[in-house]
Amino acid sequence: MADEELLSRIGAGAAELGFDLDSTQKGQLLDYLQEMVRWGRAYNLTAIRDIKQMVPLHLLDSLTVIPHVRGPRVIDLGTGAGLPGIPLAIVRPEFKVWLMDSSAKKCRFLRHVVTRLGLQNVEVVQSRAENYRPEQGFDTVVSRAVGTLGLLMDLSAHLCESGALFLAMKGQFPEAELAGVDERFKVNEVLALKAPGVEADRHLVVCTRL
């Protein structure tokens, strides 16, 4: 598929979600997906290899969380290939976004992408959540398809300021996981998310650190 058609799909999908992206942002998002394709097989970044499918299933799906993120300090736990952190950093340049993953390979890819795209508002951290001790907590902790709610909360509670948001992107409604919510958090709501071109169930668990 030609770059112009992919850029059009990215722009149209983002507009449907309420984002008016400029040409630089659309170009950065496309460049990011193209780098994911190039590095994907050697670095095992994602099971999805077709860039046409990456637009809705990775990119637009990641954009659905952005209206719920509170800045300016945001950390993406278990970011993997940089989802949703890199799209978030591109669409919300006023935020400072930390991308955390324990995989050296994935962090190598992330640093390459951050440099290639010129993202001044992104920091890559190779660490496990429980071992990371920043000087200051975060306004929002977000994760996409990583672990159970209870485990994620236990591992990352120290990263949240009091009153901070904890956002967990899930597939089907996580009824069983909600029973195991950490007592240090309050579940505010569970929202159904809908990305253009994505038919599968998507939900967002919105929590506050007590």
Describe the structure.
It is built from seven helices and seven strands; from the N terminus they run H-H-H-E-H-E-H-E-E-H-E-H-E-E. With about 210 residues, it is α/β, with parallel strands linked by helices. The protein is about 40% helix and about 25% strand. Helix 2 (about 25-45) packs antiparallel against helix 4 (about 85-90) and helix 2 (about 25-45) packs antiparallel against helix 5 (about 105-115). The protein has a seven-stranded mixed beta sheet with strand order 3-2-1-4-5-7-6, sandwiched between helices. It has a domain at about 65-210: Vaccinia Virus protein VP39 (Rossmann fold, 3-Layer(aba) Sandwich), CATH 3.40.50.
The CATH superfamily of the domain at 64-209 turns out to be Vaccinia Virus protein VP39
The CATH architecture of the domain at 64-209 is: 3-Layer(aba) Sandwich
How do the SSEs run, as a string of H and E? HHHEHEHEEHEHEE
Spatial strand arrangement across the major sheet: 3-2-1-4-5-7-6
Average pLDDT for all residues: 95
Distance between the termini: 48 Å
Roughly what fraction of the amino acids lie in strands?
15-25%
CATH topology of the domain at 64-209: Rossmann fold
